[in-house]
Amino acid sequence: MKRYLFAIVLSMISGCASVGTPITQSNTEVRLPHYSLVVPPDKGWQLSTPDNNKLEVAVLTKDIGPIRFRIQTMWVAILDEKMRSVPAKTVADDYRNLERQTMLKEGVERGQYQLNNVVMKDEIVKDKNFFVMTYAKLFPGSQRQLGKLHLFFPKEERNDFFILVLYVENVLTNTWTDPKPQRNELEEMLMSLRVRE
Fold it and tell me: Measured between alpha carbons, how far is 167 from 179 in angstroms, rounded to an integer?
């Protein structure tokens, strides 16, 4: 039985995205029916959204040299009635484990990449509790992907949906760019996240 309207995203994230709209002072807020967030303006972020955006997806990308930074946000409906009645942490653990299993099955077992350093934890950003999973993918050749999945629930239990925020750094192993500015910008976006039920 399918438990979530959209799963699984970590195995599907590619390094490619179409060129989007630059985020400037005049369009900093990304507003979708169930959530909104503010993107720091004039920092090189480009916003793309699908034409048929039933899943309320927003994709932000920024390229610095050979490194692509990507933030994908999404509304995820909880379809399973049992999962709607349990604490948010139970749903978060289930979803993160599904993502991990999918990465192992779709990527590692098929020889597409190695999966390392998978860590699941809770993280407070300002006044919001996020259920987090970090990971590293090492691809054949010289590319690696560092990812950090954030799940935010409107309530501590009995949720119909949650908001997914995925941050990814696609890097070549022989290059280095300080990711701290982009990670700080991600934190600003997480602090600005607002959810509507």
Answer: 11
